[in-house]
Each structure stands twice: as structure tokens, then as C-alpha cells.
Amino acid sequence: MPYVISIFGSSAPQPGSADYEAARDLGERLAQAGFAVQTGGYVGVMEAVSRGASEAGGHVIGVTSAQIEEFRPLQANPWVKEEIRHQTLRDRVLYLVDHCDGIIVMPGGVGTLSELALAWSFVQVGEISPKPIVLVGGLWQRTLAAFVDGSYVRPEHAALLTLTKTPAEAVEALQKELAESI
Fold first, then answer.
1. Which range of residues forms the domain containing residue 112?
2. In total, how many domains does the chain have?
């Protein structure tokens, strides 16, 4: 099995929007680089990444949750090739954070922020094995600029995150970090 990359991002972007198309480009680039993609399996960024990877011939894993489907009636998007179901949102998020070789975070809201914070914290304290965490776009650059304060976040912990502007830069950074960890 190729490296599995979990991608987090908003469920809001619609086809044709800038964030949807960036996520679709990311999925395509990851598949072309030989990675399997793993998302929450539903709509928005998750669908776009799945679609881009599938259209490029890549393997697409969707990690879904009965609890989410009770909250919002959804099914896995049509580009998911392998669905991994969990009962709760907690189990779904823990699986996405733990069962991957790297993480890419696209723009998103509270759910995406919580996924990023969990992954970052788990890598920081050694709860999960070290892995690249790559953030894409100006939203994360602004968020971290406001959040990372030397009184609370040590430089070595801030350095666990890699900031990039585009999907192309994200895939390049991911490849570099994975190559350095071998």
C-alpha cells in the first residue's frame, strides 16, 4: 500500500469554487505522486480531494461516521473507493489522525481546526508517531500568526507544522518531509 495521506478541510466548498478546485488539484497531485488519499469521505474539500485523486487513478479512502450521518443526512461521496465506517465522530477523527503517514490541512472551520489541533498536539507529545503536518493557504498563516506566541508555543513545537500557499507546494513539502524521515 502506498503512503496514506489524511486531508482535512471544510465541507462547505462547492464545485467551481476556488477552495473546491484547489482541493481537487491537491487530490490529483497526491495521486500522481503515488499517495493514497484519505478524507472524512463526504462533501466539500473531502469530495474535491477524492474526485481529483480518483480522476488521476489514485486510491481514495473515505472515513465516515454514523453520528455525522444522523446530524446531516449524507453518504460517502461517489469517488470513495474504500469506505471505513465508525460509529462516532470521535472514533472517525482519531482514525484519520492516527492511521496515516502524513496530514494536509486545507481551509476550514471549527471541525478542521479541531482536527489540526488534535494532530499537532498528538505529534507534539508523542501520542502518535511523528508525521508531516502541512497546512495550505493564507487562512492558516493568519491563524498561526495570531495564535503562536513564544510564551505558550515553543519554536520546536511550532516547527511541527509546515505552512504552504498552494497544493503544489504542499505536495512538494510532504514528499520532502517523508523522504527525510526514512
1. 4-181
2. 1
Q: How far apart are CA 40 and CA 177, in angstroms?
A: 23
pTM, two decimals, is: 0.96
Residues 6+ apart with CB under 8 A from 18: none
Contacts of 138 (CB under 8 A, 6+ apart): 165
Grid cell 498552494 is found at: 166
C-alpha distances out from residue 117 to 27, 57, 120, 165, Å? 22, 31, 5, 19
d(Cα 75, Cα 52) in Å, to the nearest integer? Answer: 18
Q: What is the pLDDT of residues 12-50, one digit of tens each?
A: 999 999 999 999 999 999 999 999 999 999 999 999 999
Contact 136, 107 (CB under 8 A): yes
